[in-house]
Amino acid sequence: MADARFSSFSEFFPYYLGEHRNPTCRALHFVGTAGFFALVGWSLLSSPARFGPVLAAILALGVIGNLIERHRNAAPLMLGMIALGVWAQPWLLAGVVWAYLFAWIGHFKIEHNRPATFTYPLWSLMGDFKMWSMMAVGKLWSGDPIEALGLQVPDA
C-alpha cells in the first residue's frame, strides 16, 4: 500500500517549515539559496540567448513536477531539470552543490532531521524558495516559524 502524500504545496509548506524550526538552519538555507540564485542570475546575464530559453524550460518542467509531486516523488524530473541547467551552463552545478551543502549541514548538524527533499524534492525546492523570499523581506530570521505564522505542522 502506498504511503499517504500531501495533496498540494500549500498543505506541504507548514510541514516544510516545521522541519526548519532552528533559525541557524534557516540562515544556512538562505545563504545556500542566495548563492544558487546568484549563479542563475549570472547565467542569465552572461548568456541570455542560451540560458534564458533553458530556464524557461526548467520552469515549465517545474510546473509539471508540481502535479507529479502530488502522487509520487518527482526526483527523476528534478534531476532532469538540473541536468538541463548544467547542460546550458556547466558551472551552474556549483550553485546546486552550494545550495544543498548549506541546506544539508543545517538538517544533519543542526536540526538533526532528514531533509524533505528526499521525499518531496520539488516541493522542498519550492519551499526553500518561498522560505528564502520570506527571509529576504525580513521574516523568519528568529524564533519558531510555525508559531510566528500561526500554522499547524501536519504529520509527514
TrEMBL record:
Under the heading InterPro entries, the entry gives:
Mpo1-like
Q: Which domain of life is it from?
A: Bacteria
Keywords attached to this entry: Membrane, Transmembrane, Transmembrane helix
Tell me where the transmembrane regions lie.
Answer: 27-45, 51-68, 80-105
UniProt entry tagged with the keyword ATP-binding: no
* PANTHER family from the UniProt entry: DUF962 DOMAIN-CONTAINING PROTEIN, TRANSMEMBRANE PROTEIN
Q: What is this protein called?
A: DUF962 domain-containing protein
Species source reads: Enhygromyxa salina
